[in-house]
């Protein structure tokens, strides 16, 4: 048995609290639902629903979930209606023929109802494979075929004709085909995961039909995109379970208050391959986390920790991801924007479950596929590209401001994108925020290293759960991208902080870290390391200096501080963020823990000197889009972690 299938089995066992040997008739689920499950159900291939007769009035509730476990794995299906003695269930996208175990889930309780064999009616609608085609089918909305839709297997690309029919000469290496969702349409979603792909079941020499049924949506040119970097969900109980609930609450509140369409986009490292088996937390559990956001479509991007540490090599290490999540690279369209998700991690693991070997590179097959995909995209179409590892690293300050390539063949990617008028690349991996524009080698390309949901692997939040802060001082959170036609703007939003919170302020006169730190004398190395990082904040000061950390800063922002109406000189510097030093680094040292992920210097700190220790300062920060963020800083302003807690 393949290891990734074993992972799915133990994940279901952990979730449902049963073993495969248990008799369904002895189900101790705690709720009474009975549906008649026929031995065989014959449906049209594009059927949206199926109905089950209710037995003895034991009907499910509308918010129960029907689980269909069959050839496509375990799928979660909504109950569309319960009436007239029938429970109508919405089928999962791309439903497959074959035997399906049918269960009903209420909260975390699951009751097995029976097994049915789903078969398709044989209908000849004139869609047939051409000579050489191994995958063919139709893309439609209702009864109408959609012309110009792009279909791919990750190697070859095909386009639908006037009737919505495509023909693809595929060698079926990835075992699926996917659609580049056309603008103005959406695909069905499982929880929040868009079903852009369908798995193939026949050998490479046998032609098989794969259809895509889309839903038309209006007014899609204006929308909001939420990007989520580095969740690192692992089931390790380091406060991530509490923090992810905060995230779900925060995103739901934001979505409900937003105008127009809202979509999501992950940026990789949603899980942590090292803990898939030891903590029984993998992709099935990750998908369950998003139940509160059902209805919000979130596209996915893979990261280095989404590769399987138990598999050898790059292709096999992505098998679990492709089985549970979907394609590792693909494209789609929303409004006037063409989106591309890439996997810029080449995995050379030996498969021992302990050691990982990741190289930051776009493998050749992706580069070649991207050329074919973009051949169908006009040069004046804005592109939003997502991948996990940042294209360039974060720079320092000074005259020699340069970016170092983090993805070894970034130049090849830039060459492909060079002719496009506007490209925004969203990345993660560093757990920091950095916007790169003027210093990129191509003026039309902007990169956003967009922060981390988990901040610093949830650990600062473990010590101070309302101050989950990353190494650069930014709160854990996500980037909010606003799109209006071809115009793109962005803001960072800390989880459970208002979007108007874009900086921290510190009054140096009230800060003395020498009284806050008591490292055991037996650890002189930690003491020396602490004194190096906390140097600026150790000892009493009467210099009237104030500091700001403006974490989403870029070169088009403006930082102003006035004292009694008089402007102060504001200087951008590199510094260790004091909040992260106290909320995380101090806590690690005092517990005698290893020195991993300690506070680094950031390039988003600003310093000014006031004339008085007690004057009130007016702080005004203006971003590149004219949004103004202010603080009336009453001084002396005390420093303690609680002042920076989220709400």
Strand content: 25-35%
Strand arrangement in the largest pleated sheet = 1-3-6-5-4-7-8-2
| Unreliable segments of 5+ consecutive residues | 1-26, 397-403
Quaternary state, please? single chain
3D architecture notes:
This protein is 15% helix and 32% strand. The protein is built from ten helices and 42 strands. The radius of gyration is 27 Å and the shape is globular. With 647 residues, the chain is an alpha+beta fold. The strands form ten sheets. It has an eight-stranded mixed sheet, with no helix packed on it. Strands 25-26-29-30-32-31 form a six-stranded mixed sheet, with no helix packed on it. Strands 9, 10, 13, 19 and 20 form a five-stranded mixed sheet that branches. Mean pLDDT is 89; it is low at 1-26 and 397-403. A hairpin with a 2-residue loop joins strand 5 (73-83) and strand 6 (86-90).
Features:
6-stranded mixed β-sheet; alpha+beta; 647 residues; globular; 8-stranded mixed β-sheet
List the SSEs and their pairings.
Layout: H1 3-16, E1 35-36, E2 40-43, E3 49-54, E4 65-70, E5 73-83, E6 86-90, E7 98-106, E8 109-120, E9 135-141, E10 144-145, E11 150-152, E12 157-159, E13 165-168, E14 176-180, E15 185-186, E16 189-190, E17 193-194, E18 197-199, E19 208-209, E20 212-213, E21 215-216, E22 222-228, H2 240-257, E23 261-266, H3 283-288, E24 297-299, H4 314-317, H5 319-324, E25 330-334, E26 337-341, E27 345-347, E28 358-360, H6 364-374, E29 383-386, H7 410-417, E30 423-427, E31 433-436, E32 445-450, H8 459-463, E33 477-484, E34 487-494, E35 504-507, H9 524-533, E36 545-549, E37 558-563, E38 566-567, E39 571-576, H10 578-590, E40 601-609, E41 617-622, E42 628-633
Parallel strand pairs: 2-8, 9-19, 9-20, 22-23, 23-24, 26-29, 29-30, 30-32
Antiparallel strand pairs: 1-3, 3-6, 4-5, 4-7, 5-6, 7-8, 9-10, 9-13, 11-12, 11-14, 14-18, 15-21, 16-17, 22-33, 25-26, 27-28, 31-32, 33-34, 35-36, 36-40, 37-38, 37-41, 39-40, 41-42
């Amino acid at each position: 048995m393949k290891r990734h299938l074993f992972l799915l089995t133990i994940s279901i066992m952990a979730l449902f609290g049963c073993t495969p040997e248990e008799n369904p008739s002895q189900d101790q689920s705690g709720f009474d639902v009975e549906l008649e499950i026929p031995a065989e159900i014959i449906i049209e291939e594009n059927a949206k629903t199926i109905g089950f007769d209710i037995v003895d009035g034991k009907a499910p509730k509308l918010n129960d979930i029907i689980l269909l476990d069959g050839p496509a794995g375990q799928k979660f299906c909504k109950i569309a209606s319960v009436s007239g003695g029938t429970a109508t269930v919405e089928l999962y996208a791309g439903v497959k023929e074959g035997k399906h175990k049918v269960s009903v889930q209420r909260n975390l309780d699951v009751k097995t109802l029976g097994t049915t064999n789903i078969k398709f009616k044989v209908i000849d609608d004139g869609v047939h494979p051409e000579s050489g085609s191994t995958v063919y089918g139709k893309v439609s909305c209702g009864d109408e075929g959609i012309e110009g839709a792009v279909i791919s297997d990750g190697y070859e690309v095909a386009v639908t004709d006037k009737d919505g029919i495509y023909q693809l000469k595929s060698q079926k290496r990835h075992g699926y085909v996917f659609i580049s969702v056309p603008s103005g349409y959406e695909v069905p979603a499982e929880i929040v995961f868009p079903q852009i792909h369908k798995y193939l079941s026949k050998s490479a020499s046998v032609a098989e039909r794969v259809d895509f049924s889309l839903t038309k949506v209006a007014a899609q040119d204006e929308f909001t995109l939420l990007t989520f970097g580095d969740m690192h969900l692992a089931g390790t109980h380091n406060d991530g379970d509490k923090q992810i609930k905060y995230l779900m609450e925060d995103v739901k509140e934001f979505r409900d208050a937003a105008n127009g369409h809202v979509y999501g986009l992950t940026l990789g490292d949603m899980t942590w391959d090292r803990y898939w088996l030891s903590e029984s937390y993998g992709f099935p559990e990750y998908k369950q986390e998003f139940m509160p956001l059902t209805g919000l479509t979130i596209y996915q991007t893979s990261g280095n920790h989404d590769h399987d540490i138990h598999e050898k090599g790059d292709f096999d290490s992505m098998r679990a991801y492709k089985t549970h999540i979907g394609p590792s690279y693909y494209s789609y369209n929303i409004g006037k924007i063409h989106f591309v998700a890439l996997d810029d991690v080449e995995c050379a693991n030996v498969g021992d479950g302990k050691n990982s070997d990741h190289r930051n590179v776009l493998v050749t097959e992706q580069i070649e596929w991207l050329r074919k995909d973009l051949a169908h995209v006009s040069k004046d179409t804005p592109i939003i590209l997502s991948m996990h590892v940042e294209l360039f690293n974060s720079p320092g300050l000074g005259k020699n401001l340069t970016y170092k390539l983090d993805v070894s063949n970034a130049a090849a990617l830039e060459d492909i994108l060079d002719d496009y008028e506007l490209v925004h690349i969203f990345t993660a991996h560093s757990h920091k925020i950095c916007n790169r524009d003027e210093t990129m080698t191509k003026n039309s390309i902007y990169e956003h290293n967009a922060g981390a949901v988990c901040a610093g692997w949830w650990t600062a939040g473990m010590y101070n759960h309302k101050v989950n802060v990353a190494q650069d001082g930014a709160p854990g959170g996500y980037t909010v991208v606003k799109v209006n036609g071809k115009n793109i703007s962005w803001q960072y939003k800390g989880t459970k902080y208002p979007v108007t919170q874009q900086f921290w302020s510190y009054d140096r006169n009230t800060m003395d870290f020498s009284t806050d730190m008591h490292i055991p004398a037996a650890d002189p190395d930690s003491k020396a390391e602490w004194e190096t990082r906390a140097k600026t904040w150790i000892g009493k000061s009467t210099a009237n200096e104030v500091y700001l950390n403006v974490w989403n800063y870029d070169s088009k922002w403006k930082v102003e501080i006035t004292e009694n109406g008089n402007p102060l000189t504001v200087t951008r510097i590199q510094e260790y963020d004091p909040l992260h030093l106290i909320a995380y680094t101090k806590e690690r040292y005092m517990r005698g823990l290893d020195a991993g992920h300690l506070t680094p210097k950031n390039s988003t700190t600003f310093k000014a000197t006031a004339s008085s220790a007690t004057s009130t300062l007016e702080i005004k920060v203006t971003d590149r889009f004219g949004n103004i963020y202010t603080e009336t800083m009453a001084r002396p302003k005390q420093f303690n972690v609680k002042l920076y807690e989220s709400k």
